[in-house]
Amino acid sequence: MKILDKYNQSHLLAYKDQLTEEEIKKLENQIKSIDFDLIQSIFDNKDKVIDTKDNLVAPLVATKLNPQDKEHFFKKGLESIKEGEVAVVLMAGGQGTRLGHQGPKGTYDIGLPSHKSLFHLQADKFLSLRALSGFSVKWYVMTSEDNHRETVDHFESSNYFNYGKENIHFFKQDRLPLVLENGQIAMKSSHEINLAANGNGGVFSSLHSNGLLEEMQSNGVKYVYLYGVDNAIAKIADPVFVGFTIDSGLDVASKSVDKENPEEKVGVICYRDHHPDIVEYSELPEDMRYKLDDEGKLLYRNGNIVSHIFTLDFLMDCVDKEIPYHTAYKKVDTYSDNGLIKADNPNGYKFELFLFDVFKFTEDMAVLSVTREEEFTPVKNKEGADSPETARTMILKTHHKWLTEAGFNCNLGYEVNTSISYDGENLSNKTLENVTFK
Ligand code: UTP
Fold first, then answer.
1. Does residue 284 have its Cβ closer than 6 Å to ligand 1?
2. Concatenated DSSP letters for 108-123?
């Protein structure tokens, strides 16, 4: 194959003589699916540092709602949900390497009394939202080749968590080859290239290529809520957020939490060159990281929690937009004469598209500032910060607050059955046994 010589990748066929015809076919098909020009250009540009000094970075003021506004937006959002105008997309194609769980991250049990998986906790929100709205919001779950089967099996074996198979759709995102430090594409076996999911920004083309945007359109969907799999307390399709987005009249809205401290490694929603954008922790110069506003709060404090609403029209526009590839220096396993070598240290690159890179295609976006304790507890690491333990603690605290407000006199440690209560409602005048797990 001439193309391999051109891009210095002829090692991909190094074991051709030892392969069966079927294996050769598989490998050739993989090779044909690769855009070598693209891979070469991402690799060549991987060390290009985004210099925020060249950009005009400015703070974006997020909105905090008072109780009256919340109530107003809740009603407005619920109305839209009832009308079938809202769909949900879950981005669950990531590898979850930091957590180190065998299997899709969504199948992980964070150790709550109910022992529900992250997917199950999310399904519960759909159930309680259905109880509030009378409508079954469609749930589109993005997987990747590596975790698709296990994800679907988890839903199937749990009877789709009683939400109805017809309301849940799975689709796969695309993959890109992993590349070693020397620029060579890594192999996984003698006849397989080592491919990995192309980042959560792959969601646009994958929704499109699977015909799902058109499906949403014909179903009358106007707003799409997109979120990540690892926020164990995510308020999925939160009616307040839906109402807030509709009221803004803008194409994109995001929820954010205040950064805990200037060094918290979270991207900040702000403006860059007069358009909304996210500036990564590493890109924000120190003086900006520490700068305070008039109230003494961090000026750049809108932490991104991967909780967004896009209008369907804008989502459709995103399909054709070109967004950059980001590079992560990672451990890359590779096959060679000695078989598959497991990397102990980073030795190669993973290229990823980020969903938020489309923000800049809008003139402005609406940002809703929410309370971390009520809305954001990501499960990223095995232990320490952002771990199953921190998620468990936060959820149990929130549920204790709900139970106390509903008139229960109980200790910390009861988990509310969120399939009957979306946000603390529907708990009064019931027995503790009926509404909780312990
Ligand atoms: P992360 O950036 O936390 O990546 O993803 P990850 O792969 O889950 O975890 P690590 O870094 O390997 O430990 C943020 C969200 O984007 C999704 C993830 O599933 C998560 O919901 N994602 C990430 C995708 O859907 N596809 C991808 O290719 C990458």
1. no
2. -B---TT--BHHHHHH
Sequence-ordered alpha helix ranges (H) in 110-189: 118-133, 148-157
Q: Is the pLDDT of residue 54 over 70?
A: no
Whether residue 252 contacts residue 362, with contact meaning beta carbons closer than 8 Å, is answered with yes
- Calculate how far, in angstroms, residue 33's C-alpha sits from the geometric centre of ligand 1: 23
Say if ligand 1 is within 6 A of residue 200 CB.
yes
Residue 378 per-residue DSSP state:
B
Protein residue with least CA distance to atom 20, ligand 1: 228
Domain range list for the chain? 51-397
Tokens of 103: 């299997």
| Nearest to 397, CA basis, from 379, 378, 413 | 413
What gap in Å lies between CA 89 and CA 342, rounded to an integer? Answer: 33
Amino acid identity at 357: D
Q: Compute φ and ψ for 155, nearest 5 degrees.
A: -65, -45
Q: 99: pLDDT confidence band, cut at 50, 70 and 90?
A: very high
118-133 and 239-248 helices cross at what angle (nearest 10)?
70
Residue 426 sits at φ, ψ, to 5 deg, of: 70, 25
CA dist., res. 54 & res. 68, Å (int): 42
**Looking at residue 253, what DSSP letter applies?**
E
**Alpha carbon 372 to chain centroid, angstroms:** 17
- The structure's pTM equals 0.96
Would you call 67 helix, strand, or coil by DSSP? helix
Handedness of CA 161, 432, 427, 404 (dihedral sign): negative
Per-residue pLDDT reduced to its tens digit, 147-196: 999 999 999 999 999 999 999 999 999 999 999 999 999 999 999 999 99
Cα of 197 vs centre of ligand 1, distance in Å, is: 9
Local confidence band at 48 (pLDDT 50, 70, 90 cut-offs): confident
pLDDT value at residue 394 = 98
Segment (H or E) for 39? helix 36-44
Q: Name the DSSP letter for residue 404.
A: H
Q: Which residues pair with 41 in a beta bridge?
A: none
Spell out the CATH class of 51-397: alpha beta
- pLDDT value at 34 more than 70: yes
Percentage helix, strand, coil for the chain under 3-state DSSP, each rounded to 5: 35, 25, 40
